[in-house]
């Protein structure tokens, strides 16, 4: 098992060249949100922009976009048709699919809810888009009975389950996930050809070739709603910037935890918020000389 360190990150991340432009840092779309879960898309989008995504678009139910757009000045938005319950309507694919064909990477699932419509949408995205994909939260719940769908992705996808989501994906109890997370993550990655980020106090990252990484940054200040949404946006940003699926996951997981560790130097873990972690990301990257 490889321990993720700042030295390892320095071999994977490059400082920006002075003559660079936004097109060099990729186009990322975040498909997220539903009535009652408007924070998740916002946090994922802000974290992606703080992690260097060139052009970031939030694709969400139209009413969610109306709520959050004012707080996402630097992002573009793609308002999508929604059901009466305020989740995405399957007919939104007429707008979303052509949009995704132009994108480098797509993060899907944060706060999306699980309905028949979202299940159809996730299957459609997996089977019909060519960009790099990260599936989190309700995108994972949507494929819980059919994880083999991951093998239809055009490029190696990243999945970011917490133990509850991993248990649903694998059809096992949470206790079974917790009994040997590294072994389970590796088997899942190898079986379905995806980079598997199994989150927890000490997150493990497994690559489809069986390589395993172990992260030691992060603390209990992250044990709050929103922390996982941030991580998804960060991995998406690194995917958009051209990192491989495994490198994007390794770098984002370490930086995410390191931001919480930096905050813990002057803030009680009890009071740490996801938004504090997002704001701390540039300081962590500065310390890495990025
Ligand atoms: N502001 C917003 O808009 C926010 C929106 N959000 C959105 O909410 C949606 C639902 O996501 P969710 O994770 O809250 O519910 P769900 O998938 O049922 O998981 C709970 C189950 O998993 C278990 N479990 C979890 N971690 C574990 C661990 N480390 N170790 C062990 N067990 C663990 C947990 O166990 P228990 O707590 O019962 O012990 C329980 O059984 C999703 O779309 C998300 O994006 C959130 O991001 C919050 C902010
Ligand atoms: N005690 C902890 N120590 C270190 N990291 C933690 C701890 N608790 C949570 N995290 C991290 O916070 C994130 C939580 O993700 P998740 O459970 O998906 O949250 P949410 O869906 O509420 O955003 C993961 O990256 C996890 O590794």
TrEMBL record:
Lineage: Bacteria, Bacillati, Bacillota, Clostridia, Eubacteriales
The YjeF C-terminal domain, residue ranges: 5-288
Family the UniProt entry places it in: Belongs to the NnrD/CARKD family.
Biological process according to GO: metabolite repair; nicotinamide nucleotide metabolic process
Protein name: ADP-dependent (S)-NAD(P)H-hydrate dehydratase
InterPro entries: CARKD, Ribokinase-like
Top class in the EC scheme: lyase
Top-level taxon in the UniProt lineage: Bacteria
Binding site residues for (6S)-NADPHX: 40, 111, 162, 229
EC number of the protein: 4.2.1.136
Keyword Translocase: no
Reported function: Catalyzes the dehydration of the S-form of NAD(P)HX at the expense of ADP, which is converted to AMP. Together with NAD(P)HX epimerase, which catalyzes the epimerization of the S- and R-forms, the enzyme allows the repair of both epimers of NAD(P)HX, a damaged form of NAD(P)H that is a result of enzymatic or heat-dependent hydration.
Protein's organism: Merdimmobilis hominis
Binding, AMP: 199-203, 228
PANTHER family: ATP-DEPENDENT (S)-NAD(P)H-HYDRATE DEHYDRATASE, ATP-DEPENDENT (S)-NAD(P)H-HYDRATE DEHYDRATASE FAMILY MEMBER
Subunit and partners: Homotetramer.
HAMAP family, per database record: NADHX_dehydratase (MF_01965)
Keywords recorded for this protein, A-Z: ATP-binding, Lyase, NAD, NADP, Nucleotide-binding
The protein's required cofactors: Mg(2+)
């Amino acid at each position: 098992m490889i321990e993720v360190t700042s030295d390892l990150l320095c071999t994977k991340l490059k400082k920006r060249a002075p003559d660079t432009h936004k097109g060099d840092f990729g186009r990322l779309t975040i498909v997220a949100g539903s009535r009652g879960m408007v924070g998740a898309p916002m946090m994922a989008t802000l974290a992606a922009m703080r992690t260097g995504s060139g052009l970031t678009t939030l694709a969400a139910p139209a009413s969610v976009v109306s709520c959050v757009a004012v707080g996402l000045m630097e992002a573009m938005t793609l308002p999508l048709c929604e059901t009466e319950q305020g989740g995405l309507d399957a007919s939104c694919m007429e707008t979303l699919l052509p949009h995704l064909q132009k994108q480098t990477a797509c993060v899907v699932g944060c706060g999306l809810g699980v309905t028949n419509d979202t299940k159809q949408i996730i299957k459609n995205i997996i089977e019909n888009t060519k960009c790099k994909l990260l599936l989190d939260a309700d995108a994972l719940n949507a494929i819980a009975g059919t994880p083999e769908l991951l093998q239809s992705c055009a490029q190696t996808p990243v999945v970011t389950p917490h133990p509850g989501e991993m248990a649903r994906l694998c059809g096992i109890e949470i206790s079974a996930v917790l009994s040997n997370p590294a072994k389970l993550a590796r088997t899942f990655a190898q079986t379905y050809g995806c980079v598997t980020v199994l989150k927890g106090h000490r997150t493990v990252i497994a690559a489809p070739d069986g390589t395993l990484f172990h992260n030691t940054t992060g603390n209990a200040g992250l044990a709050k709603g929103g922390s996982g949404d941030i991580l998804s946006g960060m991995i998406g940003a690194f995917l958009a910037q051209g990192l491989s699926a495994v490198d994007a996951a390794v770098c984002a997981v370490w930086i995410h935890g390191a931001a919480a560790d930096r905050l813990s130097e002057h803030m009680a873990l009890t009071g740490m918020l996801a938004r504090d972690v997002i704001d701390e990301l540039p300081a962590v990257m500065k310390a890495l000389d990025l």
